Amino acid sequence: MSVIFDRRSIRRYKDLPVSEKDLEGMLRAGMYAPSAGNERPWQFVVIRDREKLMKITEFHPFTQMLKEAPVAIVPCADMRDLKYDGDFWVQDMAACVENILLEGTARELGTCWCGVYPKENYVRELSALLGLPDYMVPFSVIAVGHPNESREVRERFNRSRVHFEKWSL
């Protein structure tokens, strides 16, 4: 539970590389996320290229931390052969991203989840930058690095948001 409670969005990073072992552990955690019908629609693009990271900050205003982050993970949804109608893949991808963030915290790395889908311009620009085929949808950008800031951990549990059996005020 401490990993869940300690996870924070980190936007400042030290000038240190992220090891292959740590990256693989985070990707492995992502691939262990639950998915509808065990579909596992995820594919990943790992970006270390400084020029590509900077280009993302030009079209996605909420990714400015990539100017310092040594690496980004871009989870993408493979839209080929989805088993179910609807957007269950969105839930699958969100679970995948959360697993990556939690594993990063467990490895004492900082992460920041930057949404891409469903913003059409972010999807289009990122797809072009990464050369994604039409059937791949970039879901998010996850900045990863050694934190150069600490974020306060505050209590978030709020009993007034819990309702039993029916809605209550």
From TrEMBL:
Signal peptide stretch: none
InterPro entries membership: Nitroreductase (IPR029479), Nitroreductase-like (IPR000415), Nitroreductase/BluB (IPR050627)
Domain Nitroreductase span(s) in chain numbering: 5-56, 64-146
Entry-linked Pfam families: Nitroreductase
The protein, known as: Nitroreductase
Organism expressing this protein natively: Fusibacter tunisiensis
